[in-house]
Amino acid sequence: MVISISNNKQELGRRAAAQGASFIRQALAHHGEATIIVATGASQFEMLDHLVKEEIDWSRVTAFHLDEYIGLPFTHPASFRRYLKERFVDKVPLKQFHYVNGEADDPVEECRRLGELIRDRRVDVAFIGIGENGHIAFNDPPADFETSEPYLVVELDEACRRQQLGEGWFSSLEEVPHKAISMSVRQILKSEKIICSVPDRRKAVAVKNSVEGPVTPEVPASILQTHPATWLFLDKASASLLNDKREEP
Question: Please, are residues 67 and 110 in contact by the beta-carbon 8 Å criterion?
């Protein structure tokens, strides 16, 4: 795992986007096309702001959506489909973007549909974050490290739901959905490269446990220790509890 510690969130976002863009351009040069995974949430604001400005032939890039609440309308401010459409999809001329439809009549069938689309694809870069409870995507602890299904219906734990409330996406805890469709841990790990952006002091415990603790389903992001090509982008605040503060120039 390569760890980059920036002075602030803007610098973190710039570095993460530049590294991810470099990997996308490499994939385009080697394969003629690229497939990426894109996450949402407050941790991705700065990275996406910089990524859409990178010089990339987006017409050869296919993107997959990482996760989405079940039953939340597209028009809701917390909708991840809305988030990605406004902050990413509308700003770059992608070959294709595969949304997770949280309003599908049958969420299990939606998982199957998405799974068929991604199961046999080479994923070149996954842009992800880490939750306050250590989750990646919506795989809350204890996460399923074993399933080979690309997408799952998951139950959101209270810590996860409180994070969404605290970030201002909802006006009350009761409004936060209890279930979501999430890309599975093993599907994320199939990505050739992983760019993980994690700003803010509220993520410091999760970062420490993910980087310096044991690999355990109780800290889902700890599984990133086993991935051969993960780049973890932190700011001073999120890195504040690490014993080994490895910093790139």
Answer: no
Please check whether residue 198 is in contact with residue 238, taking contact to mean a CB–CB distance below 8 angstroms.
yes
In this structure, the strands spanning 2-6 and 230-235 are parallel
Give me the sign of the Cα torsion angle 46, 47, 48, 52.
positive
Interacting residues of 158 by C-beta distance below 8 A, sequence separation 6+: 173
Average pLDDT over residues 238-246: 83
Report the C-alpha dihedral over residues 16, 20, 21, 27, rounded to 10 degrees.
Answer: 170
Tokens (6 digits) for 226? 């086993």
- Three-state secondary-structure class, residue 3: strand
Length of the chain: 249
With a cut of 70, say whether residue 35 has pLDDT above it.
yes
Domain boundary assignment for the chain: 2-189+197-235
Q: What is the mean pLDDT of the chain?
A: 94
Report, as an integer, the average pLDDT of 206-228.
97
Nearest partner of 130 among 226, 61, 199, judged by Cα = 199
- The residue written with tokens 């996860």 in the block is 160
Closest Cα to residue 136, out of 98, 101, 182? Answer: 182
The CATH number of the structural domain formed by 2-189+197-235 is: 3.40.50.1360
| Residues contacting 42, CB < 8 A, separation 6+ | 167, 200
Please give the pLDDT value at position 50. Answer: 97
Entry pTM: 0.93
Closest CA to 143 of 50, 223, 236, 32: 223
- On the CB side of 9, CA atoms within 13 Å amount to 14
Mean pLDDT of 163-168: 80
